[in-house]
Design brief:
Strand content: 15-25%
Strand order of the largest sheet: 2-1-3-4-5
Order of helices and strands: EHEHEHEHEHEEEEHHHEE
Number of domains: 2
Shape: elongated
Helix content: 40-55%
Radius of gyration: 27 Å
């Protein structure tokens, strides 16, 4: 992680920078608002820690200008003022979090890491794909090669689970537990029966097989 610290108090800046460096982060320190804004605009940072009371340009103005430029850099605001009004001002300026002084550097690091995780989190896909097979998680539409396939609810749930675990072997016991929430009975053939019906619809004659049996272990969905 690469962090920008905009703080004019050299003691605090060194304290924060050293804490992040010990946690494995690279840190750049700016000692006033103008240089901090210019550095932030260069890009390449994962997050910024911005003090409010800064020379040349206060921290809230730094954040406002960043946001006006469309810069979505995650920012945590530092301030000696811990009142509710001060926190609201920091958040309304475009800050993502607010921490009052004095503070624990361990808490600051944890908060910054949480901001970075949220900012970099990718949205869950709405369509699962294996080969030419597609399953739309929103519409529940299933198609192979562009041709729609109608599935019963349990067949759909089974296919979704197999596709979510593409390339991984899943056992009968796991399927019973995760798909139907049943206790596994080693003598039942409900899984084999459902897999058979699903194959008849998915792995039609002339198409490459996508649902494979791994004898002695379970099943895997993948294009080979």
């Amino acid at each position: 992680m690469k962090l920008l610290v905009i703080e004019d108090d050299a003691t605090i800046a060194d304290f924060v920078a050293e804490g992040f460096r010990q946690s494995g982060s690279a840190v750049i320190v700016a000692g006033d608002g103008e240089s901090g804004l210019a550095t932030a605009r260069l890009g390449g940072f994962d997050a910024a820690v911005v003090d409010i009371m800064l020379p040349k340009m206060d921290g809230l103005e730094v954040i406002r200008r960043l946001r006006a430029l469309g810069n979505r850099l995650p920012v945590i605001v530092l301030s000696a003022r811990g009142s509710v009004d001060a926190k609201i001002a920091g958040l309304e300026a475009g800050g993502d979090d607010y921490l009052a002084k004095p503070f624990s550097v361990a808490e600051l690091i944890a908060r910054v890491q949480a901001l970075v995780r949220r900012a970099t989190r990718t949205a869950e896909p709405t369509v699962l794909t294996v080969g030419d097979l597609e399953l739309d998680l929103v519409t529940h539409r299933v198609a192979r090669g562009g041709e729609r396939i109608d599935l019963q609810p349990l067949e759909y749930q089974l296919l979704e689970y197999l596709m979510r675990n593409q390339g991984r072997v899943v056992t009968k016991a796991v399927i019973m537990d995760r798909v139907w929430d049943y206790r596994f009975n080693p003598h039942t053939n409900v899984v084999e029966s459902r897999i058979c019906h699903l194959r008849e619809k998915i792995d039609r004659e002339g198409s490459p097989k996508l649902i494979h049996t791994i004898r002695g272990f379970g099943y895997v969905c993948e294009a080979r």
